[in-house]
Amino acid sequence: MKWSRVARPRTPPAIKADWRQAAGGRAFRDGHGAEWIAAAWLVLKGYRILGFRLKAPGAEIDILAQKGPILAVVEVKRRRTPGEARLALSADQRERLRLAGERLLRQRPGLRGLRLRLDIVTLVSGRFPRHRREL
C-alpha cells in the first residue's frame, strides 16, 4: 500500500494591523535617531563609542561607551516629559543591563580592567539630552 501525502490547508500568517505596523516602524526610527543623538552627546563629553544595539541574552545595550577606566552601558530613552524619561527604566531592566554588561566584560579581553557603570541618556523635545551616571 502506498501512502500519499495529503496537503494540509495552510493558515495565513497573522498580519499586523496597518496602523500598528506603521506605529512600530515609527517607534523604531525614532529610537534609532535618539540613540544617534545620545551618542553624539556622549562623544562631545569625551566618551568613545564602542558599539550600538548590542544583543545579549535578555537585554539589548543601546550604546556601549568608554571614558578612561569606565565602561558605560548606556540606555537611551526618549519621552515627552522629563518625569516620564526619569521613570522609563525599571529595576528589572537595570538588572538585565547590568548582567549584560558584566557578560561583555568577561567575554571581551580588550575590556578587562574597566569598571562597569550603567548610565541613561534621556531625550525630551525642546531640551538638551540629559546624561545620568551610576544608576
Key features of this structure:
single chain, 135 residues, alpha+beta, 3 helices
The residue-averaged pLDDT reads: 84
Helix-strand pattern, N to C? Answer: HEEEHHEE
Largest sheet: 5 strands, mixed
Radius of gyration: 20 Å
Number of helices: 3
Distance linking N and C termini: 70 Å
Give the uncertain stretches in residue-range form: none
Helix content: 25-40%
State the total count of DSSP E strands. Answer: 5
The class by helix and strand makeup works out as alpha+beta
- General form: extended
Numbering strands along the chain, what is their spatial order in the largest sheet?
1-2-3-4-5
The percent range for strand residues is: 25-35%
Q: Layout of helices and strands, plus pairs?
A:
Layout: H1 18-44, E1 48-56, E2 59-67, E3 70-79, H2 82-86, H3 91-107, E4 115-124, E5 130-132
Parallel strand pairs: 3-4
Antiparallel strand pairs: 1-2, 2-3, 4-5
Mind explaining what this structure looks like?
The protein is an alpha+beta fold. Helices cover 36% and strands 30% of the residues. It contains three helices and five strands. The protein has helices spanning 18-44, 82-86, 91-107, and strands at residues 48-56, 59-67, 70-79, 115-124, 130-132. The mean pLDDT is 84.
Provide a compact summary of the structure.
By secondary structure, the protein is of the alpha+beta class.
